Amino acid sequence: MTQDTMTSSEAEQTDDQQTRPTPGADGLVDRADDSESETAADRTLIEARDLDVYYGDDQALQGIDMEIPEKQVTALIGPSGCGKSTFLRSINRMNDLIDIARVDGDLYFRGKNVYDDDVDPVALRRKIGMVFQSPNPFPKSIYDNVAYGLKVQGKDDDVDEKVHTALERAALLDEVEDQLDSSGLDLSGGQQQRLCIARAIAPDPEVILMDEPASALDPVATSKIEDLIEDLAQEYTVVIVTHNMQQAARISDKTAVFLTGGELVEFDDTNKIFENPESDRVEDYITGKFG
Ligand SMILES: Nc1ncnc2c1ncn2[C@@H]1O[C@H](COP(=O)(O)OP(=O)(O)OP(=O)(O)O)[C@@H](O)[C@H]1O
C-alpha cells in the first residue's frame, strides 16, 4: 500500500512509527549517534507537555510545557514554593517516592514518555542522576562513595579507572588523590558536594539534575561548583534549580521562570530572560520587585 492509498489514520500511524524512537528492555531510548549534522544544543533531550503535579488535592505544577536542550545548562528559577524542585523531580520520577504526589501529562526523555508503564524508574535514574542541596556523602571512603553507584549497577569492570575519571570530571581528583581511603565526611562542604557530583557522574548518566547545589556553600566553594557545572555541560545535560539569579545568569544557557501557583511564565535563552523578558511579571521578579 502506498501513502496515497492509505486512510489518514493509517498514514499517521506509519509516520508515528517512523518518528518514534524504539525503546530498549528498560523502556528507554539509548543515546543517539553523535555523527548527526545538528549540534547537541539543537536537540531537545527532555520535553514536558501539559505536565501537572499534585500533592494530594494541592496542585504544585500547572500545565508545564518545556523543551530542554541536550548538553546545555538549563536553570529553573522563581520564588519559594513555585514548584521548581517538583519539576526537577518529575524528570527522573523522584516524585514517585512521595506517596501523595501524582503526575498528569507527559514528560519525554529522548522522545519516550518516562511515565509509560514499560519504563523502569531505576534505569531512568541511572540515565538521569541527581545532586541535592546539602552535600550528602555516604559515611564511607572517598573511593567507595564514587564506586558505590558502579557496584550497585554491577559495573564491576575498570572501577579504579572510572572512579578516577569521575573525580577528575568533578574537579576533585587533584585535592584527594592521596587520600582516597579517607572518609568522605572529612572533606570540606565544597569538596563534599564535588564528591557527590563525582558519585552522580560515575555511572555515566546523560543528565544531571541539581537542586540548589551551592546554596549551603561559601562563595569560593560556590564559584568552583559554578565553573564545574559549565564544564560538565560539555558532556552532560544539566538542569539546575537555583534561588540565586546571578548564578542562573552566569552559568545557564536557558532559563525557566516559574511563578507562584506552579506556573511556568517564561522559558527562553538566559540572556533574553535577564535582558529583555517578554512578561512584566518576569521583569518584576528578576529586578527584585517581588519574590
Ligand atoms: N512532599 C511534599 N508533600 C506535600 N507538598 C509538597 C511536597 N513537596 C512540595 N510540596 C508543595 O508543593 C509546592 C511546590 O514545592 P517545591 O518544593 O517544588 O517548590 P520550590 O519552588 O522548589 O520551593 P523552594 O524554592 O522553597 O525549594 C509547595 O506548595 C510545597 O509546599
Please give a structural write-up:
The protein has 291 residues and is α/β, with parallel strands linked by helices. It has a domain at 69-86 and 118-286: P-loop containing nucleotide triphosphate hydrolases (Rossmann fold, 3-Layer(aba) Sandwich), CATH 3.40.50. It has eleven helices and ten strands. The strands form two sheets. A six-stranded mixed beta sheet has the order 6-7-8-3-9-10, with helices on both faces. Strands 2-1-4-5 form a four-stranded antiparallel beta sheet, with helices on one face. Strand 7 (207-211), helix 8 (219-232) and strand 8 form a beta-alpha-beta unit. The termini are far apart. Mean pLDDT is 89; it is low at 1-9. The site of adenosine-5'-triphosphate has 12 residues, from helix 2.
Give a brief outline of the structure.
The protein is α/β, with parallel strands linked by helices and 291 residues long. It has helices spanning 8-19, 84-91, 121-127, 142-152, 159-169, 173-176, 189-201, 219-232, 245-251, 270-275, 280-286, and strands spanning 44-55, 58-69, 73-77, 101-109, 112-113, 128-131, 207-211, 237-241, 254-259, 263-269.
Highlighted features:
Rossmann fold, four-stranded antiparallel beta sheet, six-stranded mixed beta sheet, binds adenosine-5'-triphosphate, alpha/beta, disordered N terminus, 291 residues
User: What is the level 1 CATH name of the domain at 69-86 and 118-286?
Assistant: Alpha Beta
Number of helical stretches of at least 4 residues: 11
| Main sheet overview | 6 strands, mixed
* Overall pLDDT metric: 89
Q: Could you tell me the strand content as a percent range? A: 15-25%
Through-space gap between termini: 60 Å
**Percent helix among the residues?**
25-40%
The helix/strand order is HEEEHEEHEHHHHEHEHEEHH
- The CATH superfamily of the domain at 69-86 and 118-286 is known as P-loop containing nucleotide triphosphate hydrolases
- Nearest-angstrom radius of gyration? 20 Å
Q: What would the principal axes of the Cα set say about the shape?
A: globular
CATH architecture of the domain at 69-86 and 118-286: 3-Layer(aba) Sandwich
- Number of DSSP strands? 10
Low-confidence runs of at least 5 consecutive residues: 1-9
What structural category characterises the helix and strand content?
alpha/beta
Bound molecules: adenosine-5'-triphosphate
Question: What's the CATH topology label of the domain at 69-86 and 118-286?
Answer: Rossmann fold
